[in-house]
Amino acid sequence: MSDGGARLDWAVWQAGFWARAGKVHPTSVAVAALVDATVSDLLYWSSFDLDPSVELDDLVQMLALAQLEAQAARGAAGDTPLRAEVQRRLRRAAWQVRLARGQHHRAAWDPNRMQSLVGPDGGLATAEDLTWDDVVRKLGWRLGLAVWLTTVEGWTLEEVAEVTALTKQQVWRRQRQGLARLRADLPLRPRSPEGEEERRG
Amino acid sequence: MVAVEVERAAERLVALADALVTAPPEARPALRERLYRWQRVLALGARRLAHAAESG
Q1: Overall domain count for chain B
Q2: CA distance A149 to chain B (A)
Q3: Interchain pair A141, B48: CB under 8 A
Q4: In the list A11, A68, A105, A108, which could disulfide-bond A32, CB 3.0-4.6 Å?
Q5: What proportion of chain A, given as a percentage, has pLDDT over 90?
Q6: pLDDT tens-digit series, residues A96-112
Q7: A43 near A14, Cβ under 8 Å?
Q8: Domain enclosing residue B36, as ranges
Q9: Percent of chain A, pLDDT > 70?
């Protein structure tokens, strides 16, 4: 705390506001009161995207701790401004909270599940089998292969040209022809009220 | 048509697999990529043949 109440203590005000809204524990207000007025607004600026309750409580603690650490570091090293030093430490700590929360919310990656989907032999997955069947039934082997390899597999024209013994130009023509035929066959929605599909229908 | 291309893919696959065994380490990633592409064509062709056999 500083300035004997002449300046508004943002940390206390903010923590009190959150406490009244049930977003932090009341004891966090007491912790916020220990924060220096020159860094107290960091509490608000660091709170974006953090969840109420535990994460905001943590933030109050982190701010107080960052201030203590910054003061100790200033004593040892010299002339770094207190606010900059506190902000740097607080930002790093808050980032850890966000990182942990992100990891908590992300789905666990299970390679075994993916393995079962793609099959053990590197062949086509079941969904790919069915889609490929549809494509090749509509377009035939030559056009279907060009469309599949370029649009589904994402191969370059050069890569497709190698496996089909064609020139890039020929691959490109087959791809365009195949896509045009697919568009003509599939019941696509019109892109606008005056869309082509609607006119054709 | 499909059978011819599948056969060609299989031949290329074998040739590339042989090349991969004796290739220097720095050339292997590119060879593996090519190998994978031929394998993919082979899988698509095999599926097409199987599907045609089921339908016909």
Answers
A1: 1
A2: 9
A3: yes
A4: A11
A5: 18
A6: 877 777 766 666 666 56
A7: yes
A8: 2-55
A9: 72
- Predicted local confidence at residue A114, as pLDDT: 55
Those of residues 13-42 in B touching chain A at CB distance below 8 A are 34, 36-41
A145–B41 C-beta distance less than 8 A = yes
A150 DSSP 8-state letter: I
Helix (H) or strand (E) holding A113: helix A111-118
* Residue reference for tokens 């916020």: A32
- Residue A64 CA to residue A61 CA, distance in Å, equals 5
| φ and ψ of B2, to 5 deg | -65, -45
**What is d(CA A122, CA A103) in angstroms, rounded to the nearest whole number?**
30
Closest Cβ–Cβ partner in A132, A133, A155 for B37: A155
Least confident of A22-36, A42-56, A117-131: A117-131
Q: What is the average per-residue pLDDT within A59-87?
A: 82
End-to-end CA separation in angstroms for chain A:
74
Mean pLDDT of A177-197: 70
Neighbour-count burial of A44, counting CB atoms closer than 10 A to its CB (0-12 exposed, 13-18 middle, 19+ buried) = middle
In 3D space, the residue among A134, A167, A132 whose CA is nearest the CA of residue B40 turns out to be A132
pTM score of the predicted model? 0.48
Question: Structure tokens of A121?
Answer: 């032999």
Tens digits of per-residue pLDDT, A121-146?
A: 556 666 677 788 888 888 999 999 99
Measured between alpha carbons, how far is A73 from A187 in angstroms, rounded to an integer?
68
